[in-house]
């Protein structure tokens, strides 16, 4: 049985980004719980931005799980990526993500590596950047495994990275890693740009998928674009996916309406 999830962002630098709820953690938890979401996905400035005691209290109070924690603030705020040509910056990126892994693992939640994968910058061959990325994922995947959680790697569309843009390239890359603890994030918005068929790609990726981002073709809440969601939902059922379906979508037209649209779409396709 798939589980519903909604995003909460606490990073002021990305106010135009695709997250449903913003800033007010307690209010966002309460709204998510009242709509019937199973979990929340957190995007925080750092691993220590929220005390674990406070977060534990909110989890207990509202009966929600923490589905995953995002790491993108490491790039947005500090300019860190796993493929920066400077080894000092790559090392700092690994340290930042490792801290986020520890934070998430306190709640049984994996960390997501999306934008922090970086790019092959001018003057650097793509093969070299991919080697640095593999090095970082191997180190971090092992750390995640030691803490009892997966590490989620997210292929991004061509406008956000020039490294890995589609699920099957991600599958091949992850299977070549020394760690077996890296799973893929199937982000339906990115997939709408890169995949010939979302449903076929999901079936081919199969058990490599460990998390799903639920947004329509225009990155508005599901149901407000042209994603063939019937086919996508069937493909996820066909592979036996039982993880979180998490709304990383624009808060359109308002956060409350976006959350309602999301849970209604989740119930339509998965319940």
Count of individual beta strands: 9
Strand adjacency order, main sheet: 1-3-4-5-6-7-8-9
Distance between the termini: 8 Å
Name the poorly predicted regions.
none
Question: How many strands, which pairing sense, and closed or not: the largest β-sheet?
Answer: 8 strands, parallel, barrel
Mean pLDDT: 97
Architecture (CATH level 2) name: Alpha-Beta Barrel
Q: What number of structural domains do the residues give?
A: 1
Q: Quaternary arrangement of the chains shown? A: single chain
Number of H- or I-type helical stretches: 10
Rg of Cα set = 17 Å
Keywords: Isomerase
Pfam family, one: AP_endonuc_2
Protein name: Sugar phosphate isomerase/epimerase
GO molecular function, one term: isomerase activity
Features of this protein?
271 residues, TIM Barrel, 10 helices
Q: Quick summary of this structure?
A:
The chain has 271 residues and is α/β, with parallel strands linked by helices. The protein contains ten helices and nine strands. Helix 4 packs parallel to helix 5 and helix 8 (198-205) packs parallel to helix 9 (229-238).
Question: Layout of helices and strands, plus pairs?
Answer:
Elements: E1 3-9, E2 21-22, H1 25-35, E3 39-43, H2 52-62, E4 65-70, H3 73-78, H4 87-105, E5 111-113, H5 126-146, E6 151-153, H6 167-175, E7 182-187, H7 188-194, H8 198-205, E8 209-213, H9 229-238, E9 244-247, H10 255-270
Parallel strand pairs: 1-2, 1-3, 1-9, 3-4, 4-5, 5-6, 6-7, 7-8, 8-9
Helix pairs in contact: 4-5, 8-9
């Amino acid at each position: 049985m798939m589980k519903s999830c909604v995003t909460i962002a606490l990073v002021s630098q990305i106010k135009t980004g695709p997250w449903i709820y913003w800033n007010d953690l307690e209010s966002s938890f309460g709204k998510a719980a009242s709509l019937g979401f199973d979990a929340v996905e957190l995007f925080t400035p750092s691993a220590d931005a929220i005390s674990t005691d406070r977060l534990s209290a909110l989890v207990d109070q509202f009966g929600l799980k923490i589905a995953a924690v995002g790491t993108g603030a490491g790039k947005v705020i500090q300019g860190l990526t796993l493929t920066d040509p400077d080894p000092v910056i790559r090392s700092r990126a690994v340290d930042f993500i490792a801290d986020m892994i520890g934070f998430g693992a306190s709640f049984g939640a994996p960390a997501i590596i999306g934008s922090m994968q970086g790019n092959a910058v001018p003057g650097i061959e793509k093969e070299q950047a991919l080697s640095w990325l593999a090095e970082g994922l191997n180190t971090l995947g092992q750390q995640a495994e030691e803490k009892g959680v997966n590490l989620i790697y997210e292929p991004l569309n061509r406008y956000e990275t020039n490294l890995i843009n589609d699920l099957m390239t991600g599958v091949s890359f992850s299977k070549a890693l020394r760690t077996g603890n890296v799973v893929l994030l199937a982000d339906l918005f990115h997939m709408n740009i890169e995949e010939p068929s979302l449903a076929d790609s999901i079936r081919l990726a199969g058990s490599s998928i460990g998390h799903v981002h639920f947004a329509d073709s225009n990155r508005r809440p599901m149901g407000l674009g042209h994603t063939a969601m019937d086919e996508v939902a069937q493909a996820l059922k066909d592979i036996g996916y039982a993880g979180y379906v998490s709304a990383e979508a624009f808060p359109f037209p308002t956060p409350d309406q976006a959350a309602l649209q999301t849970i209604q779409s989740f119930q339509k396709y998965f319940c």
